[in-house]
Amino acid sequence: MIKKALGFTFALAALPFMANADDIQVAVASNFTAPVQALAPGFEKATGHTLVASFGATGQFYAQIKNGAPFQVFLAADDSTPAKLESEGEIAPGSRFTYAIGKLALWSPKDDYVDEKGDVLKQNTFAHLSIANPKTAPYGLAATQTLEKLGLTEMLKGKIVEGTNITQAFQFVSSGNAELGFVALSQIFKDGQVTEGAAWMVPEDMYDPIRQDAVILKGAANDAAAKAFVDYLKTPEAAKIIESFGYTLE
Amino acid sequence: MPLTSADFAAIRLTLELATVTTLILLVIGTPIAWWLSRTQSWFKGPVGAIVALPLVLPPTVIGFYLLVAMGPNGFVGQFTESLGLGRLPFSFAGLVVGSVIYSLPFVVQPLQNAFDAIGPRPLEAAATLRASPLDCFFTVVLPLAKPGFITASILGFAHTVGEFGVVLMIGGNIPEKTRVVSVQIFDHVEAMEYAQAHWLAGGMVVFSFVVLLALYASRRRTTWS
């Protein structure tokens, strides 16, 4: 019995060393979840490496990276967090680039609930408007900038519920607990159209551009798989997939 | 001290939530614990297991089911709407419901242990003196089970203060309504406001230590007497 237990412990201890050397650990901002899942098969087929993606909020990843998280590549939801990591010497020099420019959408899963101009916000007939946390999530900040531009900040203050990241903001709406919410277009958009419900594409002059930067982290500066993934992101094949989710590119 | 008014609002809200939750749990936990302690029924096993479920379930499971159940398509959501109460997610009442479920075993189990320890003898003696069952409960059981009630209250309160996952999933992070201390700490860390995170997190460590110390001190006193 003890022997068996010990054997099991050793097997567990050995796990990290058994991992394929060509695995690449990528920290991915929540809004880019669907695109990364669509990009992974092509990348893995083209290079033979295996992509292991973690999804979360950009600020959370920053804290984890500063404290030694084992990521090789970081796809952030903004450009300021990667710039901060760069100035702090946490990334491979020269590796920072914009991989996508995000778009904000006001969305409800109910057909016709959201009109094409976003007037539903002014009508104010809903109980809850979901946004991502503006302190930590760039799409949340873009949402508050939009409300500010529309002059609705005060009026809607008591109705705003915050998700910790854009995935949770989306989930509050998709579960029906909030009638509508500001989400990333990529969450509701595929192949040139909104997949479910109705959405208002927020005009880009209503919020600061959501430039999403990618970096190779310091520890992976000489890692071939990390470089292969970043190179793959810049291929026309990858660009086509990224654009199909409603992002624009530089 | 770099704590802001938002931090103090979160502390106040957390204490309110823990107080309300503990009071409700004492009211509904006492009969459940009493029944579990006295019954010979076949249902004792399943009911005991259901009460203990929150001990082992990840808070995400509880949060997810609550969000779905309390939403417009869930049975709880439709029930509260039909009563004209609106829906529970993103409200203080919703957090109370979540916390009651989440902290249930921390109140029921100490009470059940206390009731078990009393045994049938004192009640039989009281009954021979013509005390009604209700009279027995209030004049015999409650005083004898006092240490159990103290333990249950402290654990229920402290466990609710420490709640995070459930609140995160059904709360919506609304200041003064659903933004409790644990969520506020999470926000500070994500926003890289480490100084404020340290003050709140350090406060939680001190608070939890003092609570447990009080718990052990109260236990020692009762063993001596």
From TrEMBL, chain A:
Q: Which residues form the signal peptide?
A: 1-21
Might you name a Gene Ontology BP term for this protein? molybdate ion transport
Cited PANTHER family: MOLYBDATE-BINDING PERIPLASMIC PROTEIN, TUNGSTATE_MOLYBDATE_CHROMATE-BINDING PROTEIN MODA
Record family assignment: Belongs to the bacterial solute-binding protein ModA family.
Q: Keyword annotations for this protein?
A: Metal-binding, Molybdenum, Signal, Tungsten
Could you tell me which Pfam families the record lists for this protein? SBP_bac_11 (PF13531)
Describe, as the record does, how this protein assembles with itself and its partners: The complex is composed of two ATP-binding proteins (ModC), two transmembrane proteins (ModB) and a solute-binding protein (ModA).
- Keyword Signal found: yes
GO terms of molecular function: metal ion binding; molybdate ion binding; tungstate binding
Q: What is this protein called?
A: Molybdate-binding periplasmic protein ModA
Automatic annotation (TrEMBL), chain B:
Places the protein is found: Cell inner membrane; Cell membrane
Q: Which UniProt keywords apply?
A: Cell inner membrane, Cell membrane, Membrane, Molybdenum, Transmembrane, Transmembrane helix, Transport
Coiled coil (residue ranges): none
Q: Tell me if Glycoprotein is a UniProt keyword of this record.
A: no
> TM spans, by residue?
17-36, 48-68, 88-108, 194-217
Q: Name one GO molecular function term.
A: molybdate ion transmembrane transporter activity
Per the record, the domain of life is Bacteria
Tell me the protein's name. Molybdenum transport system permease
In the UniProt record, the gene name given for this protein reads: modB
Q: What does this protein do?
A: Part of the binding-protein-dependent transport system for molybdenum; probably responsible for the translocation of the substrate across the membrane.
Query: What's a single GO CC term here?
Result: plasma membrane
